[in-house]
User: Fold these one by one.
Assistant:
Number 1:
Amino acid sequence: MTTMTGSRPTLSPAARIARMHRQGKLTALLLFLPPALVLFTLFVIWPIFNAANLSFFKWSGYGAIDNFIGTQNYQRLANHSVFHQSLWNSVKLILASLFIQIPLALTLALLIYKKTSANTAFRLIFFAPYILAEIASGVIWSFIFDGDFGVSGQIAAALGIDPFYILADRQFAFLAIITVVVWKYFGYHMMIFIAALQAVPDDLIEAAEIDGAGRWQKVFYVKLPLIMHAIKLSAFFAIVGALQVFDIIIPLTNGGPSNSTHSIVSYLYTYGLAQLNVGYGAAVGVVLFVLCMVTAFSYRRLAMGKGGAL
Amino acid sequence: MKSFCLGAAAVLGLTLAGSALADDVRMLAIEPNVPEGRQYYLDVAKAYEAENPGTKVQFDFLDDTSFKSKLPTLLQSSARPDAFFTWTGGVFAEQAKAGVLKDISADFTDADRKNYSPSGIQSMSHEGKLYGVPMYAASVVLWYNKALVEKAGVDPKAIKNWEDLLAASKKIQGAGIVPIVMGGKDKWPIALFYGQLAARIAGTDGVAAADKGENDGFNNPSFIQAGEALKQLADIKPFQPGYMDTTQPKAAGLFGDGKGAFYLAGNFLVGAQAQNSATGKGLGDDLDFITFPAIEGGKGDPADTFGGVNGWLVTKDAGKSTVDFLKFLTNNKNQTEGGRLKIWLPIGTNAQSGIADPRLRRIAEDLSKAPHHQLYLDQMLGASVGAALNDAAAQIVTGDISPEEAAALVEEAREMR
């Protein structure tokens, strides 16, 4: 094997292919690359470029795409107060996911990660909301928040106070959505943490005990450092997931009252698809795509260390 | 293998030719509001098939939202239906401009056209060409609960203009009763007030001019005045608590349960307030209506009606049978039956005889006598401007924007259309 140090002879592309052929790699490449490449190009790359192209047109979804309007869709987006609100809402969702959902999931995971039958039951209960379809969770919670016929209405009646309509209130409606999002996804993060905690070697914990570590010291100096990779991964899923929240908002508030509870995706759906401004919707989609990409790459670089290793 | 392929191709070819020869009719409908509606369509299809052996009529149903979001793609694909449900208005104009519809003017003689109200035919026409067949109309009136208004000492029949309604609302509120039940979450129920006010103040011609951008478009003083009138009402806080988290069907049920005195809605409320009420019975004979109050100095005729016109649009490449079936579906017998089943207000001339409910009969009579029938503004203006209008109306009521800002919001959307 040649050493990697020193100047490496640069091979011409033809020579490289010839070498691959000699090594038998070319056949494998030609055989196995096209299916994945074609599918990826067809269903990922092509739609992205198509959407980017569409975002420079005004198109209602009907007829030919011929009304080129340059960057007008983006200008309109930059000036639209509802879009600003939905960006801010997405930021709030990210913050809630990072600072409420993940600590909650972590605490519960630490409490119930050991294999006992009671813990299994708890795990099942906490994980159950995640299994539920998003849209179903939204509908269920809209019944819970309903001040007339719902659970909150019944509680108010039992207490003898006026019913409170949280989803009709501009100030509190988004808080209700955050509650549902946390409720829905904490179980998922909890499961990631439980899996990681179960992989922490017992002898390390025992060693810490012998060294006289207390309950909290074991958590902070042994368990958490050893599952840091899982926490980082979880945080990544939480951020990207928060950017994409949609199905929960539609049944709960449909973006209201006064368009104050849109996420970026529900904004895209409402102003792009439902109002037949497909070009405008594409522009929102491009912005969302860029946000997700920037988040993903900068997160890899900042949190996951060199080369994206966990 | 080769012979198998050839055989398969031949079979496929024959099947395709067969289906083309038979000229089947594929209809795409929205899920009807009442269960009888679905059965009605299927019965009519069966009756048509019996009269025309060899032709098959198929109805597919989608709920409103899926229907609206799937339609653009569907119409531009080869899987498009032969005819589909329409609310007419701006979206219909888009479809006609995009060339996905079929001009059926030649298939409708003057005698054929006489079977429908002129406004119905007008609604199905774009630039003088007829693209579809009207089937029913909806007309918005101000419904009230007799028992509750009596209890509050208000005589609804004496409400003639906007000030009367404001005064009545205050009086009802004073009696501890919710003056108006509102499904604010859906926004369009609020926009019914806004649109009605605009139609009363600007008149149908004024609304049409604004749609074209004449006289400052929606920044025209008439629309600002409509917003101010709506704000006057909202300032009384006449709606039930939590109205912004109440959908229209739920609101209809609350009204049917006697939770408020007034409800602005189309004729469909007769069925909806009963079906959605907790008792399932609704208000019964306590339900009655007045026409929307007049606005002093408004250009709109107080006898003008406001609401929808619905029917079927024919897509390009649809066969002869489609138009034939649509004529059958909207013939006098079927129209009368639709009215009898309380599914809708038939748009066919002389098809009102089946309407048994006296209130619906009165609405139908008012509709036939109306000098103009203003289409729901959100339908008329098309998807994006219509949504801006609904948003604007909702935000006037919640106090988030002023009537001037609301008008500017709608005008901005119109300019970008």
Note: Chain B touches chain A through 35 residues (CB under 8 Å).
Number 2:
Amino acid sequence: MKPLKKTVQSSPEVTFTAASHKHLQNILKKVKPKSGKLLSKKDQPEIFIILTADIPAEKRTELLKSKKGITLNPEDNLLKRLLELEKENRHLKSLSQTDELTGFYNKRFLNKQLKIEITRTKRTGQPFCLMFIDLDNFKSINDTFGHAKGDEFLINVCHLICEKIRPTDFACRYGGDEFVIIMPATFLLDGISIAQRWHNLIVQVAAQMEVNVSSSIGIDEFDVSCTLKAEEFLDKVDKELYNAKNTGKNKVSYPGERLKANKAEEKFVTPAEKDALYKGSAPLKQKRK
Amino acid sequence: MNTKSKPFIVSVTSGKGGVGKTFITTNLAATLARQGKKVLVADCDLGLANIDIMLGINPELNLKDVVFGNMHLRDVIIPTKGGFDLIPASSGVREMAQLLFEKIQIIKDMLLDIEGYDLILLDTGAGIAEVVLQFNLLANQNIVVINKELTSLTDAYAMVKVMYQVFGRQSFSIIANNVPDEKNGLSIFKNIDSISRRFLGFPLNYLGHVLQDEAVGKSVLKQEIAVMSFPRSRIANNFSQISRAVLDLKKA
């Protein structure tokens, strides 16, 4: 490391944010510095350093002209600060889309992802499901045992969901005790069975913590023929949740009409219809004999 | 010739495979063409297209070049010996067999844009996959091909039912293919028609029948169009009747 440090001191430094590791390797190949160093992808995925002491002047200007390069004074600790900024940036980005208490995605992320899923459905034709989970009597924990216990309950529920959720689904905290789960590439029939599973798991967590909390869940499918906008669809599923709340809580509510159609699609031709078709053909068969 | 108004789009579908969709499509198209109609046939069996094989041709471009190249549907249209024009598709291209919904919409939009034809016949694939349903949905009229096999009747009924349940379609035309006699054709039509009336609540429309005939097997083997090779055969007569019924649908 020591000789390298010497070089640093005696030469200007160029930091590159290359489009890719490969891209930078190509640049290095072109300019062929005798003492160049490429930070590994793992150390700094986006920032690379080239020591330019031995780079010919004309090549150096070419490098500096590149939009992706910036010159650094080695006396300055700008590089260090840049790296710190980069780290900070990533941290802020994750903060901007996650909920602090539970680690779930937040409402901002939900709104963004929902729009992406709608576009995806229109492209691929595959439906997705969205569910609202609202905890029943959650306030009673806060009121009886204090907020710490309430938070603990939320965290336990979220941990369980994180553990069991399918890797392609998105769990978001929508409000205090309200969660939204986006399930890409999922039919309503599938979505309902998953909702039922979350419903049962929440009952288990409540039993373990000896609190009287259950959940109301509203769920609906967004299919390719649906023309609703993101907010409108969210409202629609929210109404389904209120339907669960208003009809006794502690249940999963879904649009029955749609499910009926889905079920019919599953069994296109019912036994009665098949029977009728068969009977209708029977005299024909006899005739042929 | 009626080229100024939009072409009348008819899909030929069945549910079950092997009942003669492609045979009906090419022969109906040739019959209509002989009557002076300008007819375009689109091979909409995107994964396993075979109208080109039925006609013994090997088109340079096909629907694949529209979906994955920068071609327009118009660029791949070719004239055929049947007197109708053809949009060929590809066979054995996996990507074509599972097109994104978005790509299907692009093909549909291009088909709707086509002018200069009296009729467009869409030869769909078997089954009730989304792509088949979408082409049926695009068509002004769906012809469902059946034969005397019970499985073909059940699958045809399933097709009618799903088009009704998913898209609210209530108008379907039936062709009974490969039947021993006229009476038999009418009888299997009556069977499926009565079940549609009873369970779905609407009647079906009978376009006619195509008789069992050795001319069919012969012409398929020779990659010829039966109604052209055997213009005086019974089936040529059957297709004349069916084509009149199709033109009546167009007027209605």
Note: The mean pLDDT of chain B is 93.
